[in-house]
Write a structure and sequence with these properties.
alpha+beta; 2 domains; four-stranded antiparallel beta sheet; about 35% strand; elongated; signal
């Protein structure tokens, strides 16, 4: 019995190890108390044209007053990689009111334990804590993006240029570029993006509308089949 169970567990462990090996951190940089109107970059070597490239940006932000009167703005500028959803676009700009940013007393990137372990194991860098002096005013923002490698490029990377900021200070900025399978924590990370929530609700509404439409079509099909069977049975009895 033991001889049968042992290969199963060995296979499971090997599969898990292979899965972890498929995730590769190409670049990870962290910036504590970054300044407005400056670009901060995570640079990586060039990647193969068919590589599955993704990125994650995580910010810890402190509001200096009520979130209603605060705002966070920044630019996303890729190098050697193209936006998967819009390859011709050179950069992207975002602006969010503070009230739309997730408010978190537990704001450390290390709360995403699996992701933190992968980063530290592959890069050898210890994740630094953002120096928030009032956790009640801490907000977080995250964005996960998919990329297409650009041909004939010598390097790849991602830059974040902060600003404009309105009564908000970015206390910690974390940028990572990865290849292969996405760590499972990126799903939780992506949910901190206000745009992710809007897209989720839009997709959910669309899915519900499609389901209602499919149900109506199926109902009419069943009705037609029943009607056809009734006509056939009536004809059959007469004959």
């Amino acid at each position: 019995m033991f001889n049968k169970i042992l290969p199963f567990f060995a296979g499971t462990i090997m599969s898990a190890a292979a899965c972890a090996a498929d995730t590769k951190i190409l670049a990870f940089e962290q910036f504590i108390n970054p300044s407005e109107k400056q670009a901060y970059t995570a640079a990586a070597p060039a990647v193969a044209p068919n590589a599955q490239v993704w990125s994650a940006v995580y910010m810890v932000v402190q509001a200096n007053q009520a979130p209603d009167n605060t705002a966070l703005g920044f630019k996303v500028i890729p190098q050697g990689i193209l936006f998967k959803a819009a390859p011709t676009k050179k950069l992207d700009e975002y602006a969010f009111e503070g009230i739309n940013l997730a408010k978190k007393k537990q704001y450390s990137l290390t709360q995403f334990q699996d992701l933190a372990e992968i980063i530290q194991d592959q890069t050898g860098k210890k994740i630094e804590e953002a120096p928030v002096f009032n956790a009640d005013q801490a907000h977080v923002y995250a964005r996960v993006e998919d990329w297409v490698p650009e041909y004939n490029t010598q390097a790849a990377g991602l830059s974040i240029e902060l600003g404009p900021l309105q009564d908000m200070d970015v206390k910690g900025l974390y940028i990572m570029v990865g290849e292969g399978e996405k760590p499972k924590d990126l799903t939780a990370l992506a949910s901190l993006d206000p745009m992710f929530k809007s897209q989720y609700h839009a997709d959910t509404a669309e899915a519900k509308a499609e389901a209602r439409s499919s149900f109506r079509e199926a109902r009419w099909m069943i009705l037609l089949v029943v009607l056809a069977m009734g006509i056939y049975l009536g004809w059959y009895r007469r004959t």
